[in-house]
Amino acid sequence: MGEHWFRYGSERIPYKVCFTPNRKRHVTINVHPSGLVHVDAPDGTPDSDIRTAVTKRARWISTKRTAVLDQQKVRRVRQYRSGEGLLYLGRQYKLLVRADGNGSALAKMRGGNIEVVAPLGDGEAVRARLLAWYRERARQHFERRMIALAGQLNWVSERPPFSLRNMRSQWGNCTVSGAIVLNPSLIKAPRECVDYVLLHEMTHLLEHNHSPAFYRVLDRVMPDWRSVKLRLDGMATELLYDFF
Ligand SMILES: [Zn+2]
User: Fold this and answer.
1) What is this structure's pTM?
2) How far is the CA of 136 from the centre of ligand 1 (A)?
3) What residue ranges define each of the domains in the chain, with the CATH number in brackets?
4) Strand duo 162-164 + 172-174: pairing
5) Which residue of 87, 157, 166, 243 is surrounded by the most CB atoms within 10 Å?
6) 67 CA to centre of ligand 1 in angstroms
């Protein structure tokens, strides 16, 4: 994995390259919600091929990156008003605050919106309801995915128990006694990133440390985990510090 940059007009745009062994697709470029430009390539792709691919799409990269950085600025000055962007499983939704409604549900997803019923102008109430809603959705999604993924791991006999904890610098951890703790903010990340964290923590049930043996197992259960991790790392600050 390496840091590179290219010039487009007056901009100097950094990008990261991630090589994956046995990758079938050729060079692909993504711009993450953090603004990170992420290039995936099969192992052994020459630098010149990567440069060419990046230069060819320079205009697209620049436009897309400017748009996501603008979105990020909006999220930073959150006031919990209708129209603000929210991330859920890697997708962009719009917050819709409604003063009416029966008030029993914390929030609900409808179309491209996440609707919250709260008194008008009460940003703190909106925040509290969103937090509770995200936490509940996180618990349900993590549970479902752990059951699905555990089926591929012969050292896990059933879905291992886990708890949720808001953390500022970690997506999850697993104690030596096998207790898995997950960060509910992870529910904002793309599905494959969630799966990566779940697989990482469940692999610790077999190998407790980040030993070569641990990575051998992880390579087997998720061959492209480095690329997925880079994607998640690129959005960490944004997801961890948004409103939790
Ligand atoms: Zn670990």
Assistant:
1) 0.74
2) 24
3) 2-74 (no CATH), 75-129 (no CATH), 135-240 (3.30.2010.10)
4) unpaired
5) 87
6) 33
Tokens of 93: 């939704």
Q: How far is the CA of 211 from the centre of ligand 1 (A)?
A: 10
In single-letter form, the type of residue at position 76 comes to R
Contacts of 115 (CB under 8 A, 6+ apart): 96, 97, 98, 101, 107, 108, 109
Ligand 1: distance of its center to the CA of 208 in Å?
Answer: 8
What is the residue whose two structure tokens read 């914390």?
106
Query: pLDDT tens per residue, the chain (244 residues)?
Result: 567 999 998 889 999 998 887 777 789 999 987 788 999 999 889 999 999 999 999 999 999 998 888 777 766 678 899 998 899 999 999 999 998 766 567 789 998 999 999 988 888 899 999 999 999 999 999 999 999 999 999 999 888 899 999 987 899 999 888 899 999 999 999 999 999 999 999 999 999 999 999 999 999 999 999 999 998 988 887 788 776 5
Q: Cα of 213 to ligand 1 centre, how many Å?
A: 12
Give the distance (Å) from ligand 1 centre to CA of residue 209: 7
Cβ(77)–Cβ(178) below 8 Å:
no
Those residues whose C-beta lies under 8 Å from the C-beta of residue 2, and which sit 6 or more positions away, are 16, 17
| Residue owning tokens 């600025």 | 73
Contact between 186 and 198 (Cβ < 8 Å): no
